């Protein structure tokens, strides 16, 4: 009377297609929000961003060093001709200086990725000497070219590009350090994860292997029986100390004998 009949319930329409679609979108939005706000995702994103920025900086640093190599060559070669070995040797000066700089920057990047600060004076001095030598050689080559008149544009770029290379070398450790700090902060906010338990896998209960039954010699068994009888005559329970003193056996063996006596309700042990 008060409830709906079976036919009425079967005729009741279910959720509409629009409702089901919105419900699915809502579930997906909740999952996306839960995953996007996970601190571990922030740590991974910061590490990937650090790698991407570092690669881009390395690319432009290599391009800048390629330009400064030509300026250092003009500074060293001067009026020499390609037939002169020093003309060819001049091409090796800037790559040698740049190789030391690149190795130093790679070392700094590796140390900063592990959270170790490398801001020490010898490192700063070495970078400044390397980049300062490149700057002086390029500016000198622009102000006193070996061939042709002085070009204001070349002087400008021979001055600006070494400065940009110098600043890139100074900024790259800062980028590494800040990205590493962001990653460490994200990892610190990540709660410890517990191994997921599979409800389908039920671990069997731990079983304790039964101790082997002791077979005491007749004389020791007699002394144990005497100790048990004496304890009962005194109206108390047999203890491990009673058995140990009567049989003169180690405490662990005495405990095993007592357990065996308890199992057999205090009857005589088999010889």
How helical, in percent, are the residues? 55-70%
Provide the low-confidence segments as ranges. Answer: 205-211
Number of helices: 10
Radius of gyration based on Cα positions: 43 Å
Give the mean pLDDT. Answer: 76
Counting helices, strands and paired strands, the structural category is mainly alpha
Overall body shape: elongated
Q: Using DSSP, what is the number of strands? A: 0
Proportion of residues in β-strands: under 5%
Biggest sheet descriptor: none
Number of domains as seen in the coordinates = 2
If you had to describe this structure to a student in words, what would you say it looks like?
It comes from Amycolatopsis coloradensis. This is DUF2637 domain-containing protein. Keywords: Membrane, Transmembrane, Transmembrane helix. The protein is mostly helical and 271 residues long. It has two domains: 150 residues; 46 residues. Helices cover 69% and strands 0% of the residues. The longest helix is centred in the N-terminal third of the chain and has 39 residues.
Short key terms for the protein model shown above:
membrane, 271 residues, mainly alpha, 2 domains, transmembrane
Topology overview:
Elements: H1 6-11, H2 17-36, H3 39-77, H4 85-89, H5 93-113, H6 121-143, H7 152-188, H8 218-233, H9 240-247, H10 251-263
Write a concise synopsis of the structure shown.
Helices cover 69% and strands 0% of the residues. With 271 residues, it is mostly helical. The chain crosses the membrane at residues 58-76, 88-105, 125-143, 155-175.
